[in-house]
Every structure is written in structure tokens, then in C-alpha cells.
Amino acid sequence: MAPIVSIRNLTKSYASGFQALKGVDLDIEEGEILALLGPNGAGKTTMISIICGIVTPSGGSVTVAGSDILTDYRKTRAIIGLVPQELTLDAFETVWNTVAFSRGLHGCPPNPALIERILRDLSLYDKKDTMLRHLSGGMRRRVLIAKALSYEPKVLFLDEPTAGVDVSLRKDMWQLVERLRASGVTIILTTHYIEEAEEIADRIGVINHGQILLVEDKKALMAKLGRKQMTVELAEPLTAVPDALSSYGVTLAEGGGQLVYEFDASGERTGISSLLSALSQAGLRVRDISTEQSSLEDIFVELVGEGR
């Protein structure tokens, strides 16, 4: 099956000479949730803005459901929904009218039942007659999502949708995203909250300095790049790593009371058994052993650091 969004050699340069995108290639599969991670200025918003027809690319091509975003603008824009970072709303309009107007603006016939369901899903229905200026920032962000959903897009871009909202609202939005995916909507999410990507994404993409560093299935990424660390708590502290343990690459934690050993959990041999034997032969008494795996945040920081 062809990807629902296909990006080839996409570039964007500004008059100042700044290159926001440098030959981006990316395929997004229908029905998946792709989380796009990257620091500020990495090119996330520029890429989304190009796909949504807000910014003109300098070069390359983008197709959505097989149609080119430049030559078939009306066709592609009709199936793309965008929830932008900025809270740009008419402060003196009601929630219901704002969402209903967005549906009409995209050429869709009135559907009060759909609008009601969307508002209920976003816990906005009791605010349907409230002017937007009376809503909190988190509620206004929900209205942005409702606007995007009102015309039933096949592809939905969420650009930092939970920025500045509380944790409970963030989890409500995660549940909504799952329901949308279940209904067949393809979702591309940019976020600074790495736990958000870890929680709901199928694949993770990392972008920095206008280039895609990696796009990988989340579980495969964690298995490939996520390393495990074993911490051995000693009964008596050491001043240095014994020579008998030097071949294992262990390090001595501050204070000398712990030895730290990193290993590849997916490898055929972790080296743990032989290390424990070496500890015993070296006459070291062990008080406790614990292990932990690299988080997605650790992997992200490592990738972005390498891309500098």
C-alpha cells in the first residue's frame, strides 16, 4: 500500500539564507501515529506548514493520498487537518459557532450531530455557548482540535497540541488520538513531551537542523538504541575499579559504593554472568543489584547531540 503522505527531497530556504529544511525524505503510512521529535528550530513546524499549504517549499515534492500539494491544492487541503501551536481564535465567537464555521469553511454540509459528538469527546459541550475569550488556554486548545476535526480529515497534524496544558488534559487528548486512529485517521504529532511520543506513537521520527536523523518503529528503536544499565551496590566502597574488572568497562559511581555496567539487552551475550563471577573472584561482596533501560528521552538527547 502506498504511503498516505510521501515527502521527497523537501527543501526550504529563506531570503536571509537560512535553510529550514535540507532534503527531507519521509513516508507516512495510512492509519499510523507518527511522533516527530526535535528541538526548537529543527524544522518540524516548517515541514508541517508546507504539507498543509501554508508555506511554499523551495524544492522537492509532497503528495497526500496520491495528490500533489501544489498542483492539487484543493484536493489535498480538503483531507488534511491542522492543529497549530498558536491559539488564533475569534475571542468574541462561541465555541459551537467557531467549530461549525470551520466545517462550513471546508465545504462540508452542516452536521450538528457530528459537532456535538466532537465537543463531547473534548469535554467542551457544556461550554458550547461560551465565548472563546472566557475560556482557559487549555480549553481554547481543545477548540483548535475541534475545529480541525469538524471537517473529518483523513490526515491530522497536531503541532505541539498539549503545550501549556495540564497533565490530566494531556492524557484526555492521548485517549482522543487513539480513538481517531481507530477510526482510520492518520496522525502526525510534534511534541516536546517525550513521554507523549513514548505513550501513543507507532513510529518515532527525529529531526534536527532541517534533516531527518531517524524514523523508526518505536519498539524497534527502543530495542536497537535503548541500552540497559546494571548498578551493583557494594557492601564496602572502593577507591578504584579492580584490574580484574577492567575488561568489562564498568565505572565506579561517585562515592565508590556502586559499580555501573552498561550492556545491550538484545545481544546474544550480555556479559552479566561472567561479570558477577569476576566480582566474586575479586572478593567483592554485593549488597544489591538493579537494572534500568534507556528511555526514549535518553535516545533523543543522544541522537540530537550527535546531529549537532
TrEMBL record:
For the ABC transporter domain, which residue ranges apply? 5-234
InterPro entries in the record, alphabetically? AAA+_ATPase, ABC_transporter-like_ATP-bd, ABC_transporter-like_CS, ABC_transporter_ATP-binding, P-loop_NTPase
Q: Which domain of life is it from?
A: Bacteria
Tell me one GO molecular function of this protein. ATP binding
Which keywords does this Swiss-Prot/TrEMBL entry list? ATP-binding, Nucleotide-binding, Transport
Look up keyword Metal-binding and say if it applies.
no
User: Which family does the record claim for this protein?
Assistant: Belongs to the ABC transporter superfamily.
Please give the name of this protein.
Answer: ABC transporter ATP-binding protein
